[in-house]
Amino acid sequence: RIPTIRLASTNQQPELTLHKGQTWHLFNSHIWSTGQDAVAVIKSEMQLLLPSIRVFLDVDDLDDIGALESYIGRSQVILIFLSRGYFKSKNCLREVRAALSQGKPIILVQEADPDKGGGSLEALRSECPEDLQPAIFDA
Q1: Do the Cβ atoms of 75 and 98 come closer than 8 Å?
Q2: Cβ atoms within 10 A of the Cβ of 17, count?
């Protein structure tokens, strides 16, 4: 039997809800070159722990690259997988700006292993446009 997350008070799995007009509980934002494998594992593990969770992952859910802002809008929470080059990606920046403008909660996950495209938080922050740094790193 695969372990799942359960509420201590009822021993039942939490009931995950989606607000009207939303499709995903979580949107995985990442750069392909250094984050694709890791976010696929994050999605897979979350689905094992919370079987009813809906997680957006581009290889599974992206139909139109021009609609990134809409996908963000249809997601409750945005997970930003920080790895080298993330903030140099035009599409990643579109996702970040959409998440901020739409007031979405943001979760940062840092890849720290340089062999996997990671770096120190300082190094990854230095790649972020200055106007976004306070909202992403200081909020």
Answers
A1: no
A2: 9
DSSP assignment of 72-128 equals HHTEEEEEEEE-TTGGG-HHHHHHHHHHHHTT--EEEEE---GGGT---HHHHHHHS
Residue 107 and residue 80 in contact, taking contact as beta carbons nearer than 8 Å: yes
Q: The tokens of 90 are what?
A: 């035009």
pLDDT one-digit tens code per residue, 48-89: 888 889 999 988 877 888 889 999 999 999 999 999 999 999
| Top-confidence residue, 1 or 60 | 60
Which phi-psi region, left, alpha or beta, contains residue 79 (left: φ > 0; alpha: ψ -120 to 50)?
Answer: beta
Could you give the C-alpha distances from 73 to 23, 120, 125, in angstroms and in order?
9, 30, 25
Q: How many CB atoms lie within 10 A of CB 131?
A: 8
Predicted structure pTM score: 0.90
